[in-house]
Amino acid sequence: MITPRAAGHAAHLAADQLPAYVYDLADLADSARAVRAALPERAELYYAAKANPAAEILRTLAPHVSGYETASGGELAHVREAVPGMPLAFGGPGKTEAELRLALDLGVERFHVESEQELRLLADLADERPGGAPADILLRVNLPAVDAETSGAALAMGGRPSPFGLDPRSAEACLPLLRGRRLRLRGIHAHLASGLGPEAQLAVAARVTDWARDLAGRHRLQVTEVDVGGGMAVDYARPGARFDWQTYGRGLRELTAKHPDFTLRVEPGRALTAYCGWYVTEVLDLKHTHGEAFAVLRGGTHHLRTPAAKGHDHPFTVLPVDDWAQPWLRPAALGEPVTLSGQLCTPKDVFARRVPVARLRAGDRVAFAMAGAYAWNISHHDFLMHPPPTFHFLS
Ligand SMILES: *Cc1c(COP(=O)(O)O)cnc(C)c1O
Predict the structure, then answer these.
(1) Do β-strands 67-70 and 193-194 pair in parallel, antiparallel, or remain unpaired?
(2) Which residue numbers delimit the Orn/DAP/Arg decarboxylase 2 N-terminal domain (predicted)?
(3) Burial class (CB in 10 A: 0-12, 13-18, 19+), 387
(4) Could you say which DSSP state residue 332 is in?
(5) In what helix (H) or strand (E) does residue 283 lie, and over which residues does it extend?
């Protein structure tokens, strides 16, 4: 659950460096290489930067991805600077005029257009700059492709009423707006759900691709790209398991054979980077109240909001520390369930509830796994003004 490289580093950190985010970049490179190898040659792998936009992560992924999916002006500017020369797609709802201008200035390779209003705005801005290359766009559609209830999706962005993308009928109605504008329709984009296994992901991909082919046929469009989104499942209850990229890759290969005119693109975030990071901290206090054991850890969910956001028990490994300098008896939980909480003065500051441990003592270190995506960057860092963690990128 923790790589030897990360565990060794975590054990040797000085106490004043805790809590610490430790990232194993060599492990990240290995897994990204394996993901790329599992996908058909004609499929493109983009990384959704919002999962973890740290420059070291973006640069480690660069040799293994075709580009990056970004979803704000801030991400665009940051990713362009961190990995110059790599293709960028700009998606996300509610793009402002200033963000669209920035994207045009940066020469963003693909715009994922989310609405008719956004299309009109982008068309006006693109027309203002004669001489420049036209803006290349994909229309993001919200297709009824996934039954979130039966597929087990953790988060559904499409297939139901949502603020994401265009209703399929609106997408069709947008097509006349493209005529005579400095816009080039390259294809269709859909990101319908997060947390899907390979079969459900392939069903989504097939649905989106068929829809794109039918649309192109009906309107005689030169559509060559279909981006089938991200959302490959990550199971926090099984930190040793991985999304089955082999099965997914085989299915995509069949799909590319069926649609030789299309370049397929996938844009996972979480499934690429979740496993490369650990939040390492120490047990400050351990006590029993009303018959239950509580370990109070340095730091809290203001550094690692993932368990609070997702409502799960975050997986962890105990890194025992045998030194105990105090003259009094060391507080410990032995062979019993323990709730791991943080330093925040709220009962919501819990990493994991009533998880059985063989032994956990004050002064032991704890490494929370799967903290490489949607972890530090989604957390409410300033709440209670505790010191920030330190960051360690191991290569
Ligand atoms: C968030 C997002 C992704 C990545 O989702 P993961 O669940 O991290 O794989 C991809 N595409 C779009 C449009 C997104 O909003």
Answers:
(1) unpaired
(2) 26-274
(3) exposed
(4) E
(5) strand 277-289
Report how many helices (DSSP H) and strands (DSSP E) the chain contains, helices first. 12, 18
Quick one: fold of 87-268? TIM Barrel (3.20.20)
Q: Which atom, in ligand 1's list, is nearest to the CA of 234? A: 7
Q: Where are the domains of the chain?
A: 87-268, 275-394
Ligand 1 closest atom vs CA 50: 1
Percent residues over pLDDT 70 in the chain: 97
Whose Cα sits closest to atom 3 in ligand 1?
Answer: 230
pTM for the model stands at: 0.96
Average pLDDT, the chain: 95
HEC readout, 74-109? HHHHHHHHHCCCCCEEECCCCCCHHHHHHHHHHCCC
Handedness of CA 241, 9, 33, 187 (dihedral sign): positive
Q: Which of 237, 325, 345, 385 is catalytic?
A: 345
Chain mean position to CA 83: 18
Ligand 1 proximity of 69 Cβ (cutoff 6 Å):
yes
